[in-house]
Amino acid sequence: VEPDEWAAPLTGPEFGYRRRARIAVRWDARAKRLDVGFRAAGSQDIIAIDHCLVLVQALQPIMSGLPAMLRQLSNPKALGHVELFSGSANAVLLRHMAPLSAADLQVLQNFCATHHAQLWLQGDGEPQPVDLMQTLGYRLHQWDLELAYRPGDFVQVNAGVNEAMVAQALEWLAPQADERVLDLFCGLGNFALPLARQVREVVAVEGVTTMVERAAQNAVSNKLHNAAFFQADLSQPLVDATWASQGFAAVLLDPPRDGAFEVVRKLSGLGAKRLVYVSCNPATLARDTVELMKQGYRLKRAGILDMFPQTAHVEAMALFEAD
């Protein structure tokens, strides 16, 4: 399958782009040593690394100081992984399998205070904040938007390419001020909120209930009142979905790696003339493209997005128009 037109790739800096990282932590009983770093490819072995060239600069000092700080804690066998986040605030999330002592908590708080980072802890349940200096979030500057999130929420790791991706998606979709637009797999509102700046109404659908709640709150926080958010399992056939009974001028979808086969089978029934599909898996995009073409859509334009420089992963974007 070939598009009518290939777009130039969307790229960004090759290094210093990643605003999130998961650091592996494991107690080596034989060596009586706490290993901190990244897991070796295809292995459970941990390679000791305290500096990463693809991380944003704001996280480098935190990563460098982590091993020494974690080795001060009293029960290293109970430590899980650590996640680092950078946005409107920096944050450190520690996964632990046993309660932390008051002394351990103080070590963690002192470390985070030194690095001006929020501290989050995760035991058996959801991540919980210990120190919240400000909301954890990221900006979409072109639309003057701030999107709040919590550790565990899906956020694109490359801020620069993400904003360029949103801009390109909206340019290709060409939404008009009087239109109703559907955003599927909406997440935190990464596409829905910029769309709401430009159209009469956005209907946004997401499978994860907490993400739907967060997206709706992000709309309120940004004083957007023309976006409605719904929860639905988009991997299943659409049956009696109230949001799907409305007509839409255009549709934007950004599914996970499994693609959106059940959704695309029904898209022609929504009346949309334009469709932008953002994909993190070219194989499922190709599969879903065949289905869309069966429904009378034409693949007008396609291109790739280098969201993860220095890796083999690639994202893609495709524009479809009804014949």
Give a written overview of the molecule.
This protein has 323 residues and is an alpha/beta fold. The protein folds into two domains: 5-12 and 158-322, 3-Layer(aba) Sandwich (Rossmann fold); 20-131, OB fold (Dihydrolipoamide Acetyltransferase, E2P), CATH 2.40.50. 23% of the residues lie in helices and 30% in strands. The protein contains seven helices and 17 strands. It has helices spanning 60-70, 102-114, 159-173, 192-196, 209-221, 261-264, 282-294, and strands at 5-6, 20-28, 33-39, 46-48, 79-86, 90-96, 117-122, 128-131, 137-140, 145-148, 180-184, 201-206, 227-231, 250-253, 274-279, 297-305, 315-322. Strands 1-16-17-15-14-11-12-13 form an eight-stranded mixed beta sheet, sandwiched between helices. Strands 4-3-2-5-6-7-8 form a seven-stranded mixed beta sheet, covered by helices on one side. Strand 2 and strand 3 form a beta hairpin. Helix 1 (60-70) packs antiparallel against helix 2. The longest helix has 15 residues, at 159-173. The model has no long low-confidence stretch (mean pLDDT 95).
Q: Might you state the CATH topology name of the largest domain?
A: Rossmann fold
Class derived from helix and strand content: alpha/beta
- CATH class categorisation of the largest domain: Alpha Beta
| Mean of residue pLDDT values | 95
Order of helices and strands: EEEEHEEHEEEEHEHEHEEHEHEE
